Amino acid sequence: MTEKKEKIPAEKQSPGAEISLLLEAASGNEKAFNKLAAAYAPMLKYSVGTVSYGLSEQDEEELYQEALLAFHRAVVKFDPLYEKVTFGLFAKICVHNALVSEVKRIKKPAPVTIVPIESVPDSDLPFSPDDSGKEIEELRQLIRDSLSDYENRVFWSYYAGMSSSEIAEKTGKTPRSVDNAIYRVKRKLKILLADWR
Question: Which of 25, 87, 178, 196 is surrounded by the fewest CB atoms within 10 Å?
Fold first, then answer.
C-alpha cells in the first residue's frame, strides 16, 4: 500500500523563491506582487468567505479588494529574517483583521447625512482629464490595470466630473457603494503613484 502524500500548497513549495518574490514585491515590483497574490488567492477568497455571510455580492467584491490591500500591506511589512512567523500566517492574520474591520464598517448603519464624494480630498494625480502624451497614457493604463472593472468605471466617471449620485445611477449601484469604491481607489492610487514618481 503506497503512502498518500499530502499536497503542498504552491506558495509553500519553494521558500527561497517565495522570499525572493517577497523582497521584490516589497520594493515595488508589481509583477512579483501579482505572482504572490495569485499564489495566495485561495487564502484571500477563503478569508473573505469566512466573514461575508449575509452580505451582498457587491459587498463581497469590496471585501476582496480590501483583502488585496491588506495582503499588499503584509508584503511590505513582513520581515523574512523573523523566523518565528511564516509569511503565510502573517498575511492571513493581517487580511483577517482588515476584513473584520471592513465588515463592521459595512454593517454599521449609514448616517443620515452622506458626505458628498466631492468633499473628499483627491489623490494628487499628475494629469488632468484633457492631458495627453505617451507618459500620461502609460500612467492611465497603469491605473486601469491596477483597478477592478467596477473601480475603473467609478473612478474614470468621477475623474471626468460626474457626481456620486450620477455615477450611482450610471452603474446601477448605491451612492454608498460608489463612495466606498472611490475611497478604495484613492488608497490604491496613493501606493501606485508613490512608486510611479
Answer: 196
